[in-house]
Each structure stands twice: as C-alpha cells, then as structure tokens.
Design brief:
The two termini are about 30 Å apart. Helices cover about 25% and strands about 20% of the residues. The protein is of the alpha/beta class and about 240 residues long. It is globular, with a radius of gyration of 17 Å. The chain has 5 helices and 9 strands; from the N terminus they run E-E-H-E-E-E-E-H-E-H-E-H-E-H. Strands 1, 2, 3, 4, 5, 6, 7, 8 and 9 form a 9-stranded mixed beta sheet that branches.
C-alpha cells in the first residue's frame, strides 16, 4: 500500500526493478537519475556485491504531475540478479508498491528471464503478496541489438498476462526508459484510489535493515531525503518507443 503524507500532500511509491543479472536494471536507474534535475532527486546510492550492484534513490518526478491534488514521490531500487542473492531480493521487495520486470531480449538470456520471472512470483508469495494483484510493467530491454526475437515470442514464453503494460526499450540509449517508469506508476495509482482517504503513512526506508557490514564496498546505508523542489521543471524524456 503506498504511503500517503497528508501534511506534505505527497504519495510515496516504492518501485523495484527486477530481472536477470546484467539485463539492464542498473542502466535504467542510472539513466533516470542522470536525466533528472539535481533538486528533484536524492543521491544515487550503491550497495556493491562481488558480482552486481544494488542501486536506489529518491525521486520527485515533476513530469508526472499531481495525482488528485497530491504530489508523487518515488523510491526506486534494483535487485541483484544472481541466484545467490535471493535473500537480498526478498528484503528489497518488502513494502513494494510496483515492479518493473526488465527482460534481457538476447536469445542467450531466455532461461535466465524465465527463472527470474518465476523467482519474482515466489518471493512475493513468501511475503504474502499475490503476484497477480501487484502492479507490474514489463520492459523488453536491449531492443537495439541485432537478432533479438520478436517481443511477441518473449511475451509468450514468459507467460505475461494480457493486462500487464509492456514496453520496448534500449536502456543503454534511453529509449523507453521513462515510458516504462510512467507505465508502472500509472498501474500503481490505479490501485490507490483517492489518496485523501488513505491513512497517514510513515516514509519507509528503501532497503529495510540494510547495514554497511552486509556488503563490501557499501557507499552509504540510508537514502538522503529529498529537498523540496525550488521550481517546477520537466525532466528531459528519452526518445519515445511505442508500446509493444
């Protein structure tokens, strides 16, 4: 359930980017952070494991506008793709409001995509969350590469529900990145209803229970709070890729 701050008229959404290792989750967050004005974002924080980084930051995306009089604030984070970090993935999924599943479109990644998508469902169920009820958007990444299979084939092999929004993307070049982000936010807000009727929420930490000792190379343990924006501005969007 999204956290609502009635005093500041904000709705806080925690969004997790999930998918196989090296599929583009980190590239998505790095690009979103880089193309957002500094006064609208928190520091990009990194927890480094021996094989992959987990990134997270706060974002006040002015291009999303207001929702029924409330400002939208996002907490964005990735999960490590390797199987050995499954306990970390479950921890990051706590109190999640929406998920972006990032598919690696390369033929060699087919089994990893299928295993990761099944793992997402398993980890949500372990926390008492019905995967069919959680807002999800699917991003088919690396569409700029040659010899990638059609999206329709990836959709069928993964068993994506017909009502899940899907986006073609090349996170490396920025194509489809912001469209995917807006797509998952739209799905979460559908489930929220009227925020003025929601109970007052407490802003959760992005990664509950994270300690610096849990990871080698940890930069910081907690996210920096966002400053209030000084003036409204639009985030420069990536070139549009039509919804597939």
């Amino acid at each position: 359930m999204p956290s609502v701050d009635h005093g500041r008229k904000q709705v806080l959404l925690k969004l997790v980017y999930y998918g196989p290792g090296l599929g583009g989750k980190t590239t998505n967050l790095e690009l979103i952070h880089a193309r957002t004005r500094a006064e609208h974002r928190g520091k990009l924080l990194s927890l480094n494991s021996d094989s992959e980084r987990t990134l997270f930051f706060d974002l006040l995306p002015m291009f999303l506008g207001a929702f029924k009089g409330y400002q939208i604030r996002l907490q964005l984070c990735t999960v490590p793709g390797q199987v050995s970090h499954d306990s970390t993935r479950r921890m990051i999924l706590r109190n999640v409001d929406g998920v972006v599943f990032v598919v690696d479109s390369q033929p060699a990644a087919e089994e990893a995509n299928i295993a990761s998508f099944a793992n997402l469902g398993d980890n949500l169920r372990l926390q008492g969350v019905d995967p069919d009820q959680l807002p999800v958007a699917v991003q088919y990444n690396k569409r700029d590469l040659a010899n990638v299979p059609p999206v329709e084939i990836l959709h069928r092999r993964l068993g994506i529900r017909a009502d899940v929004p899907e986006f073609g993307a090349s996170a490396k070049f920025g194509d489809g990145v912001f469209e995917t982000l807006k797509g998952v936010v739209k799905e979460v807000l559908k489930s929220l209803g009227d925020p003025s009727e929601a109970p007052q929420g407490r802003v959760p930490s992005i990664l509950p229970g994270v300690r610096a000792s849990m990871y080698p190379g940890v930069l910081v343990g907690t996210a920096s709070p966002l400053e209030e924006p000084r003036a409204e501005a639009r985030v420069p969007l990536a070139p549009r890729v039509p919804k597939l």
